[in-house]
User: Which sequence fits this backbone?
């Protein structure tokens, strides 16, 4: 059955006219240098595309009509996003937004988190179908339908996930914990209580030997040793209003700020991934329930970017 995450604060009544007006703000043409940032908007069902350096809008409605998108990942020119309201993972062209596969995965449960490792796609499901499944990232073919099944009891629902080597790190919002499991089928849990005592954990991301975990209720991003789970800095980033997703790209750490979830009130902040220092707390603003984040380089330059067109040879 389709169910919805319990990891968001209460959301005020939506206003369709306000949403339409907010989305009418146009996108700006930008150069092809640097990084782009993809952001899912849970409230509005949109996936936006932004300049990861300046925060300028490339296309706020890059992909629209999604049903409760919670996470997004990118591999090459393929963009993966959850549609938790209808139980699917859908893929799009990361450059154009064109639909590639409407139902790469299709279940009766709510997909929440995504992780990619080589040709493998890992998807976490919450509520009745709580598990982490493994798929072929290109075809959607099932590799393992129950690679990880919760073992800590009631409330042990995997949500955001991340993969390092042969290990899956899974956040349990209700249990305030991060567990570590094997990507190899039929293996026992590595450590289902790898990190405990969190405060509403949501997003999770690696940067070298560091593991970053978002604490939504606590308004922080905490830093841990990815190998041991030892706490490095409980308040690596602090003072946030219900942070949800996190992504790291080089020296930059991006955090989505869900806030109340009301139309146009969410944002993405940018921080130094080594020190946690604020670079731009309001890098992207005007979002509607921002959640999952992903960053990738802009596409390579082509002759058309300079106003030239290629001609056929004779």
Assistant:
């Amino acid at each position: 059955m389709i169910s919805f995450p319990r990891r968001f604060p209460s959301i005020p009544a939506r206003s369709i006219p306000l949403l339409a007006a907010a989305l009418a703000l146009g996108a700006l043409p930008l150069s092809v240098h640097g990084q782009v940032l993809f952001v899912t908007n849970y409230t509005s069902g949109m996936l936006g595309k932004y300049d990861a350096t300046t925060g300028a809008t490339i296309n706020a409605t890059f992909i629209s009509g999604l049903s409760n998108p919670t996470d997004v990942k990118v591999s090459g020119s393929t963009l993966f996003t959850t549609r938790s309201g209808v139980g699917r993972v859908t893929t799009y062209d990361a450059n154009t937004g064109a639909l590639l596969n409407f139902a790469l995965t299709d279940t009766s449960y709510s997909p929440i988190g995504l992780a990619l490792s080589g040709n493998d796609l890992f998807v976490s499901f919450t509520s009745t179908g709580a598990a982490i499944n493994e798929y072929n990232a290109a075809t959607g073919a099932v590799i393992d339908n129950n690679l990880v099944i919760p073992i800590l009891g009631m409330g042990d629902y995997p949500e955001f996930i991340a993969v390092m080597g042969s290990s899956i790190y899974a956040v349990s919002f209700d249990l305030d914990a991060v567990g570590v499991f094997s990507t190899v089928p039929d293996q026992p849990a590595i450590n289902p209580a790898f990190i405990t005592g969190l405060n509403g954990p949501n997003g999770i991301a690696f940067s070298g030997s560091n593991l970053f975990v978002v604490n939504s209720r606590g308004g922080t991003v905490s830093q841990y040793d990815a190998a041991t789970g030892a706490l490095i800095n409980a308040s690596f980033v602090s003072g946030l209003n219900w942070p949800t997703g996190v992504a790291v790209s080089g020296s930059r750490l991006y955090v989505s700020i869900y806030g109340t979830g009301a139309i146009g009130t969410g944002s993405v902040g940018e921080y130094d991934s080594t020190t946690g220092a604020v670079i731009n707390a309001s890098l992207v603003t005007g979002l509607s329930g921002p959640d999952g984040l992903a960053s990738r380089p802009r596409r390579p330059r082509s002759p058309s970017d300079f106003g030239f067109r290629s001609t056929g040879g004779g």
About this structure: Confidence is low (pLDDT under 50) at residues 11-33, 300-314. The longest strand covers residues 278-287. The helical segments are 16-23. The radius of gyration is 19 Å.
